[in-house]
Amino acid sequence: MKVIIVGCTHAGTAAVEQILKDHPDTDVTVYEREDNISFLSCGIALYLGRIVDRLEDMFYADPSTLEDLGAKVEMKHSVEKIDAKSKTMIVKDLNTGKEFEDSYDKLIMTTGSVVSTPNIDGIDSPRILYCKNYEQAKGIYESAKNYQSIAIVGGGYVGVELAESYANTVHEVTLIQSGSQILKNYIDKPLSDKIIGLLKDHYVHVYLNERVQGFEDGKEITIKTDKDTHKADLVIMCTGFDANTGLLKGQVDMDGRNALIINEYVQTSDPDIYSAGDACAVNFNPTKKPLYIPLASNAVRQGTLAGKNVFGNIQKYMGTQGSTAMQLFGYTLASTGITLHNALAAGINADRVEYYANYRPDFMPTNEKLSIFLVYDKDTRMILGAQFFSKHEVTQSANAVSIAIQNKNTIDDLAFVDMMFQPYYDNPWNYLNLVAQLAINKLDYGIVNQ
Predict the structure, then answer these.
(1) Which of 33, 37, 152, 160 has the fewest Cβ atoms surrounding its Cβ within 10 A?
(2) Whether 238 is catalytic
């Protein structure tokens, strides 16, 4: 069987490795338009913040790694056209400009995503940069050496991480967000307000409810919004990502953001085309509907499953909770599942409780405060999501709630699930038990205080 993989970052690399581990004699060809593979873009903020010294350390594989496994890896090759009916494609060698045709038995689309680019005046200025791939990260790093003031457009995950990185490297930072909160896909507004306060404490200028309408070049770049103007030496656009799926437009099912819709075997509506990573939607467990969540964690899991399932319906995709975390000025922010405002928008009869307390007994010589938001379905009592914020390590608690969502556990389950007690680590009731007990008290007894 001949398998062609188009695109090779996290998902593509995982697919190749799985195919050739299970079936080492498979004819596997990889087409990648860049000159590198497996770049961890989530490490860009660490590099820009001088936490890691070498951007090259963000690669965990190279073409020779896959070639040693038995794959044919064609770098700097762009797939120009795919005909799903005939299972053929036109490929262009970017080094020579020559085009040729290839064919497949099974196709795995791991073409990733591209930065959303608003069509506004002045967007083509050389001092307006994007942050996703290796070359872009190098450009940002070099440019920022020469500029003191940085404006970041977009208050999503990348934008907030970059704001922290530049604040920590003594830049003047402006963060502009079109909506009423930041990180809207991950946290609810009360926690957003807390993080905005933290950003402001570190001299980040945060502007909400301002939509950028254009840029004007000069000694500084003038950023024109629908409410005001701002100036900066350098602008970084962090306005989200779009699925890079134009090659299959009109040939397979896609969602409103052009992400490929996949089934439980990561198979598209064409049974011979699979997809993984940022090119496709995830099966989002809190809503049981497809959702576009471009995360490396989703990519490696889906890529591995694609590598298995091209040989048959071998292992089902469990779906995802979209769990993620970031460190922000010494605090950890972690989230999993759905926020309350997104749950309500999805038509779920949801509610939320908020827990604020020390993570371990008050008699311990040191302690840290926890903020936990737990989102649940009032009809089924099932857990839908959680958000954590603390200087204490809370990422594994987010993982625990992710498992609870995956397993369709209720607030009653979480309230009494067995967890260890040791004064170094928690109270006799673990804080996950306690936040779930708050939800029970609110839902059953109308008690809203801790």
Answers:
(1) 33
(2) no
